Amino acid sequence: MAVRCRACQAESPSWSDFCLRCGRTFSIEERTAGERAGETCEDCGAEVTAGSRHCLDCGAVRGGGMATPDAYRVSLVAKLLALIPGIFNFFGLGHLYLGKYRKAFAFLLLSIGLRLANDMWVAPGDIANADIVWLGASLMVFIYQLWDIYRITDRELLKR
Question: What pTM was estimated for this model as a whole?
Fold first, then answer.
């Protein structure tokens, strides 16, 4: 039995007085109205706790994520959008495709900052070894954004 919080949409046990995620206090009406029968396992039919990823009786992984072919397609497109433009120091498109707007915005700002740094310091040759520093910074951002895309797609889409 679970109660869904109106503020953060997290599920908490019906006996809880407050939301386990955000701490909002539940009213008695919310707790009694939120009680519902537990969900059942698709494989064995046993009752499972709402929100759990595995059945306690048979150990089957429960659904709820994206279908596998769709998840692989979305994962591949996001990785390509991170890889190909990233080679040209244009970061954040993979995050934008996945709906991770804050990270996408941060990576796009890094792209602009690196481009401005390249135009201001590397091209005129004012600072010694500025091209190596710029290349190293670009490479670090490129590797980090690729790693983050792989982490996001493997954990959230493919549920590994």
Answer: 0.55
- With respect to residue 91, please indicate whether it lies within any of the assigned structural domains: yes
Residue 37, classed as helix, strand or coil, is coil
CA distance 132 to 118: 11
pLDDT per residue as tens, the chain (160 positions): 577 787 777 777 777 777 877 888 877 777 666 544 456 666 566 666 665 665 666 555 555 455 567 778 888 999 999 999 999 989 999 999 988 899 999 999 999 998 888 887 766 666 667 778 888 999 999 999 999 999 888 876 665 4
Q: Do 84 and 44 belong to one domain?
A: no
Q: Are residues 43 and 73 in the same domain?
A: no
